[in-house]
Design a protein that fits this description.
Elements: H1 8-14, H2 22-31, H3 46-53, H4 59-75, H5 86-93, H6 96-109, E1 111-115, E2 129-133, H7 155-162, E3 168-172, E4 182-183, E5 189-191, E6 199-204, E7 215-219, E8 223-227, E9 240-249, E10 254-263, E11 266-270, E12 273-278, E13 285-293, E14 298-307, E15 312-318, H8 328-341, E16 345-350, H9 367-378, E17 383-387, H10 397-400, E18 403-406, H11 414-422, E19 478-487, E20 494-502, E21 508-517, E22 529-538, E23 543-550, H12 552-555, E24 557-558, E25 564-566, E26 569-576, E27 582-590, E28 594-595
Parallel strand pairs: 2-3, 2-16, 16-17, 17-18
Antiparallel strand pairs: 1-18, 4-15, 5-9, 6-7, 6-9, 8-15, 9-14, 10-13, 10-15, 11-12, 11-14, 19-20, 20-23, 21-22, 21-26, 24-25, 25-28, 26-27
């Protein structure tokens, strides 16, 4: 049977505007063959019932959709044993085996991007004090759509568990920020009644601020990411709205950028004038305005916000930097710097806001986090940055930091895995699954570009990436040698073999990679393409013979006549530790043209 993406059925009416009503939406979806609406029956509930009552949809169409769903449920045995012992969920979902699997996945995914002068791993016997800094330092980073684990450990907790009892672990979260903006502090906000700090928030159980609010409170800041949840038990998870009112106090005279970042719609009045009007469903989006303020003067502000479905977020931000550092994010940075100065090493955990519906226009870290890194590096203390992101970040600070770890969203055991890598209990062996740009202007950037597609410099920047595809460092060293190529028939397979030896002093993983280039062909071919890779764990001094078998499929491409062929000639075989770190090279010669089979899959359905 066919299911929808979350919320996509309602999009027929609300977003694509190809239906006049939710009833017509239900008709179009069913006629197109959609059997189940996810995540809940927003259209396939009351609107579908009304559509049937109006005669828009024959009951037979619904019967067919139900039949397909029930058929699959019968096939997989859901009606044979519809109920399970609740204790089984605990046994299978939170067992030690799964915890160890989560830990191993986190360990193996971590990529050591940079390690100048062997700053890592840290020697716990020599370290008397550590500064653990950054907004991600005491968070469990799970990634989008992850469930809340029953047990989890943050990097801060894991580091505390990893050091000697007498080692002092200082901690400061520091600022987060969205791009160049930070939340407006409560001391610059006055509620509607003029008493205290913050803004008066009126919360409604509908999306149009109608009727009486179900909750009225003073919010110190508009700095909320509710996710799929609710602002308060009195407010529904979806279909709610909020009106914030009060005054903004200008810290100094000058020009300010004020921004609203929301998911979904928002309107913003400043001094009685409507400056932002974006009253529609949307993913997290930033709107900004420029205003001129006088020091000490109070300005009326009003924000109206609504949440329709799924994730909810609302932020009132500005680009103001308080140079006195007595308030705002600079005070948080100063506290972090103070802790770094009295520590032997500083570890900064950095993060970004990203995910579905949160595409980034720039790749830099939020400016407050960049400033935190820059200030800590200037202390002269050894500084390690751990990136807890799902994609690349850029910035000038990267050149000044001696060690960088890419930890991704490592899950419930991620904190422990990171601590193991920091202190050398686990030797990192992860590799980058993409090419990491030095500047956003280099994008798109691929390792497998065509000969004229990339690789040259720009007028004002290099064309080379910051870190190449497949890059990842280790605490040990590996040597490659004895490359041999053996043809088992003119049409393959082609055996590629070589030796890898751990010539360092630690056990570790190497991810060996095989790339192929077709230097001369009837159509332009990539400068290299990854065809095989293998992760191999070796003890110091241990060697292993790696064998890869290439087939005709690995060498074939579509020619000008759209035939999948292998053309005669030389193919370059490259073995390395990344797409740029090639250690061994040789050639494979094909004597005659080979026409490769195109594999097809036929699927038979019972749909009319």
């Amino acid at each position: 049977f066919v299911v929808s993406d979350y919320g996509s059925v309602a999009g027929i009416f609300h977003n694509h505007h190809v239906a006049n009503s939710l009833e017509e939406t239900a008709k179009l979806a069913l006629e197109a063959g959609l059997d189940v609406e996810l995540p809940w029956p927003y259209v396939y509930g009351e609107p579908l019932l009304r559509a049937v009552e109006k005669g828009l949809i024959p009951e037979e169409v619904i019967d067919e959709a139900v039949r397909r769903v029930l058929r699959v449920k019968f096939l997989i045995g859901l009606f044979d044993n519809p109920f399970v012992n609740p204790d089984d969920a605990e046994k299978y979902c939170n067992c030690e085996e799964h915890t160890q699997l989560a830990l191993q996945a986190a360990r193996e995914s971590i990529v050591l991007l940079k390690n100048e002068n062997g700053i890592l791993p840290l020697d716990r016997e020599k370290i008397k004090a550590i500064a653990v800094l950054g907004s991600a330092s005491n968070k469990v980073k799970l990634g989008g759509y992850s469930t809340i684990p029953k047990r989890a450990i943050t990097p801060l907790e894991a580091i505390k568990d990893s050091v000697k009892p007498e080692t002092v672990v200082y901690h400061a979260s520091g600022p987060f920020g969205i791009g160049k903006y930070t939340p407006i502090p409560s001391k610059f906000l006055v509620p509607a009644d003029g008493k205290g700090q913050g803004l008066t928030g009126e919360y409604y159980a509908n999306i149009d601020l109608s009727g009486k609010p179900v909750l009225v409170r003073v919010d110190p800041q508009v700095n909320f990411f509710w996710g799929m949840g609710s602002p308060d038990p009195a407010v529904p998870d979806d279909n709610f709205s909020v009106r914030w009112t009060g005054k903004l106090i200008a810290p100094k005279s000058g020009t300010y950028e004020i921004a609203l970042a929301t998911d979904d719609g928002v309107r913003f009045w400043f001094d009685g004038k409507l400056l932002i009007d974006s009253w529609h469903d949307r993913s997290l989006t930033v709107n900004n305005v420029t205003v001129t303020l006088e020091e000490g003067k109070q300005y009326d502000i009003k924000i109206e916000y609504y949440e329709h479905l799924y994730e909810a977020a609302a932020f009132l931000l500005w680009n103001y930097v308080d140079e006195s550092a007595s308030t705002g994010y600079l005070s948080e940075i100063e506290e972090a710097v103070r802790l770094a100065e009295k520590s032997d090493v500083a570890i900064i955990f950095a993060e970004i806001m990203e995910g579905e519906g949160k595409d980034r226009a720039i790749l830099d870290l939020p400016r407050p986090q960049e400033l935190l890194i820059e200030r800590v590096v200037k202390t002269g203390k050894p500084t390690i940055v751990v990136l807890m992101t799902g994609s690349a970040v850029t910035g000038d600070w990267i050149e000044r930091v001696p060690a960088i770890i890419q930890a991704w969203y490592p899950g419930q055991e991620g904190g422990k895995a990171i601590a193991e890598v920091l202190f050398g209990d686990y030797n990192p062996g992860g590799r980058l699954p993409f090419t990491w740009p030095k500047y956003v202007g280099q994008l798109p950037l691929y390792y497998n570009y065509k000969p004229t597609g990339r690789g040259y410099d720009y007028v004002d920047m290099t064309g080379k990436p910051l870190f190449p595809f497949g890059h990842g460092l280790s605490y040990t060293r590996f040597e490659y040698k004895n490359l041999k190529i053996k043809k088992q028939g003119e049409e393959g397979p082609f055996e590629i073999s070589f030796d890898v030896t751990n010539v360092g002093e630690r056990e570790g993983d190497e991810v060996v990679q095989l790339y192929v280039q077709d230097p001369v062909a009837s159509v332009a071919r990539p400068v290299k393409e990854l065809k095989r890779f293998q992760r191999v764990r070796l003890k110091p001094g241990e060697s292993k013979r790696i064998v890869f078998n290439l087939t005709v499929d690995d060498l074939a491409f579509f020619d000008m006549n759209m035939r999948r062929v292998v053309e005669p000639g030389e193919f370059k075989i490259m073995i390395g530790a990344s797409s740029e770190d090639i250690r061994l090279q040789s050639s494979l010669n094909i004597e005659k043209k080979i026409v490769a089979d195109i594999k097809c899959l036929s699927v038979k359905t019972d749909r009319k």
